[in-house]
Amino acid sequence: MSLELTRNIGIMAHIDAGKTTTTERILYYTGVNYKIGEVHEGTATMDWMQQEQERGITITSAATTTYWKNNDKEYRINIIDTPGHVDFTMEVERSLRVLDGAVAVFCAVGGVEPQSETVWRQANRYNVPRIAFVNKMDRVGADFLRVVDQIKD
User: Fold this and answer.
1) pLDDT at residue 52 above 60?
2) Domain tally for the chain?
3) 10 Å Cβ neighbour count for 78?
4) Which residue intervals of 56-139 are DSSP H helices?
């Protein structure tokens, strides 16, 4: 496949914002997986290490590939699910160097949290274009507009 039809997209956020859960949905809806893996069940595709499955957190960046058709072209999308815990910030840094873009995931309840700001600054350093995704809108206390205002600040 041509490099011009390949995109490396990172998923980045504060711990527990829902990066891996979002990635699992992408894999399901693009047909890569027939079943949605769940972090809390230890069945997430991207959390492949035993320690990740036991702790319910991403420790190492994990990559997978899916495909997207648009205007009679098929794009290869390499998705990189990055850790959200502050102890693994350097793992995010390594991943950012190869990204064409990133999805910054924000929790609709927690909003912009310290590690969200850290990974955003890291992406600025490498000029990685981003889109913001407000996740967990189904939770009690979710406030989309508050989170959008926090992102703007």
Assistant:
1) no
2) 1
3) 16
4) 89-96, 114-125
